[in-house]
Specification:
The complex is a heterodimer.
Chain A (H helix, E strand, L loop, with lengths): L4 E5 H11 L4 E4 L6 H12 L6 E4 L3 H13 L4 E5 L1 H16 L5 E6 L13 H5 L6 E4 L3 H15 L8 E6 L7 E5 L3 H7 L23 H16 L2 H15 L6 E4 L6 E5 L3 H14 L4 E6 L1 E3 L3 H8 L4 E6 L9 H10 L7 E6 L9 H16 L6 E3 L5
Parallel strand pairs in A: 2-3, 2-4, 4-5, 5-7, 6-7, 10-11, 10-13, 13-14, 14-15
Antiparallel strand pairs in A: 1-8, 6-12, 9-11
Helix pairs in contact in A: 1-2, 1-6, 3-4, 6-9, 10-13
Chain B lengths: L35 E5 L9 H5 L5 E3 L5 E3 L9 H5 L5 E5 L4
Antiparallel strand pairs in B: 1-4, 2-3
Classes of the chains: A alpha/beta, B alpha+beta.
Chain lengths: ~400, ~100
């Protein structure tokens, strides 16, 4: 399959995907580094190139609230944000998922203050880790574009009905120009049929959404929600397969790079994956047995796929781009939980690196792998450190 | 027809906890919240209807004899009716356990 490649800023491509996905309602508030996405969408709507309502709201709390309302009437809705904006929105993230409204949101990941910073890390995404949305972390611009279609198709499936977050690293992805294979509109229209809500608000068919629940029924509602997201896993695989059949780009909940025979695996999320792969190649040139495991699907956590890869390795070097202050890296925490039930499990060494946009070069990944292998050999099976901090 | 909330299993709850039956709050027994219930002294009652007007739960209904009587299925026992009654015809008494 040979498609035409075009060069485009990743944020613009993300906005083009939202247009191609026939979104009905966009509600967003500008915040760096997500701004270019909504600016471009605003232009598309204002110029009549996109048939959608664009709501200029006064805050991110309202941005997602509008999406909850519009999605509840059966309109395909989109928003995007970053960092403090996501923090302000966080209250509504829990409501969107509990009401089972398949909104799609792109987060251009950025550091939560303080200190004030506009640069990239995953502290914003981790702040709403438990909000009940399906959560992807993507590695490059093409994946951002592709996951917009994947997310709507997946979220709107009657067997899923959940909102979806696409996490993309701010600046590292949002502001760079990359080559894109755009998908023809007819193909997208086939892949993504118009949204038909299971329940929607309409004066002719009165229903109540977001009602009060007393303790006598609350636990039952949460069990239903937890079962729904756990049960979405086969559907996730099915949609990723269908997308691959259409484009030739097959995605997996856990992506692997030269992991098959590797003793040591670098475990990453987001744009770290490509740099870590370069580092793995360099280490392999030096005769080292290293691969990369990239976690694409963060929620629901793909335990089965993860273990299939992880249990074959001796050392896992988990590189987190956020700190759960007082505990360490949140990804490492999940990784350790996934391995707890297995006697012959790899050692896990955890680095926090690249927080607030500090560059992490291939040479840094090599240094981290060196340090981890050495520490593990010396018996330190629970290592954790913030990488590259001046002493 | 809906049923009391403690009878629902997690599998029966509509997706997103949507309430599909409009007005089903009328099925909800708020009467079991109360510790005190209103008792009307018909000798003192002047049929003014202030209890009916002030009741925040619209629990009062006019009966065939022309008295306003609280429906204990809904009455939460707040005592506003007793407070507002101009002749002191309503008294709040402890509702004993069955």
């Amino acid at each position: 399959m040979i498609s035409k490649r075009v060069g485009m800023e990743v944020s613009i491509a993300a906005a083009e995907a939202v247009k191609q996905a026939n979104v009905d309602v966009i509600s967003a508030y500008p915040i760096t580094p997500q701004t270019h996405i909504v600016e471009h969408l605003s232009e598309l709507v204002a110029n009549g190139e996109m048939d959608a309502e664009f709501f200029c709201v006064e805050s991110e709390h309202s941005a997602l609230s509008v999406c909850v309302g519009s999605e509840a009437t059966g309109a395909r809705s989109f928003t995007c944000t970053s960092a403090q904006g996501l923090a302000l929105m966080s209250e509504i993230t829990y409501i969107a998922s509990a009401l089972r409204l398949p909104i799609v949101m792109i987060i251009a990941n950025r550091t939560l203050s303080a200190p004030l910073s506009i640069w990239n890390d995953h502290s914003d995404a981790m702040s709403i880790r438990d909000c009940g949305w399906i959560q992807f972390f993507v590695e490059n611009g093409q994946e951002v574009y592709d996951h917009v279609f994947i997310s709507y198709r997946l979220g709107e499936d009657r067997e899923v009905l959940l909102p979806v977050i696409i996490n993309m690293d701010g600046f590292t992805l949002s502001h760079v120009i990359e080559p894109f294979e755009m998908i023809e509109q007819e193909k997208i229209d086939q892949f993504l049929p118009p949204y038909k809500a299971l329940y929607s608000l309409h004066p002719d068919r009165p229903i109540t959404m977001g009602a009060f629940a007393l303790p006598a029924i609350f636990a039952e509602t949460k069990k239903a929600q937890e079962v729904a997201i756990q049960a979405s896993m086969p559907k996730i695989l099915e949609v990723l397969k269908a997308f691959g059949d259409m484009t030739g780009r097959y995605y997996n909940p856990i992506e692997t790079y030269k992991t098959e025979d590797a003793d040591t695996l670098l475990v990453t999320m987001g744009s770290f994956g490509e740099t870590a792969s370069v580092a793995a190649d360099r280490m392999r040139e030096g005769g080292r047995s290293v691969g990369v495991m990239k976690i694409r699907l963060w929620r629901p956590f793909p335990f089965e796929d993860f273990r299939k890869v992880a249990l074959k390795a001796k050392n896992l070097v988990v590189i987190d781009r956020a700190i759960s202050v007082g505990m360490g890296g949140p990804v490492a925490s999940e990784v350790k939980a996934a391995l707890y039930g297995y006697d012959s499990r790899p050692s896990v060494y955890n680095f926090v690196a690249g927080i607030s946009g500090r560059d992490v070069a291939p040479s840094d990944f090599i240094k981290m792998a060196d340090k981890a292998e050495l520490e593990i050999e010396e018996g330190n099976r629970e290592g954790y450190e913030i990488y590259g901090v001046r002493e | 027809m809906t049923k009391p909330e403690y009878e629902w299993t997690w599998k029966e709850i509509p997706v997103g906890n949507v309430i599909l039956e409009p007005g089903n709050a009328s099925q909800y027994r708020t009467g079991d919240w109360k510790t005190l219930k209103p008792i009307l002294d018909k000798e003192k009652c002047i049929h003014c209807g202030l209890c009916y007007i002030f009741c925040p739960d619209m629990a009062y209904n006019l009966n065939e004899e022309g008295y306003f009587i609280a429906d204990l299925f809904y009455c939460k026992g707040c005592g506003i009716c007793a407070k507002e009654c101009p002749t002191g015809a309503i008294s709040m008494v402890v509702e004993e356990e069955k």
